[in-house]
Amino acid sequence: MNTDSSLGKYLLLACLLLPLAPANAEKPQLLGYGVKPCEAYLTAYEGWDLGQEEHIEQYLRFRDWLAGFVSGLNLAMGEDMLRGVEIEGAMRRIQIHCDERPTVDFFTAAMSLIQILNKLERDGAAPDS
Q1: Does 66 fall in a domain?
Q2: Is 129 contained in some domain?
Q3: Residue-range definition of the domain harbouring residue 49
Q4: How many angstroms separate the CA atoms of 14 and 8, rounded?
């Protein structure tokens, strides 16, 4: 076997696997409802609770984002990240978190919930659904 040929293949493979963007490139733009502030979620939640059509649509978008985000985490981690809490229960808990911290983004509030549920499971407490 020709070692120069093998080495060349490995070098080619390494070059192909290097990122195409320069190291000093800007951070990627984040998109979706996860980057919206908790204030926007609180408005949507209150409108949903009152049955206001325009806010119901926004609330459903937040809920769909959360469902997709959690589904992706579940697949990546191989476990139920909401620890059996239904999506509506998760939305209510995020609403409480956002009431206390309206300037954080929805992603941060969702991650806080996941961390709380993880800690409850580790400590042996069962989360309320």
Answers
A1: yes
A2: no
A3: 30-123
A4: 10
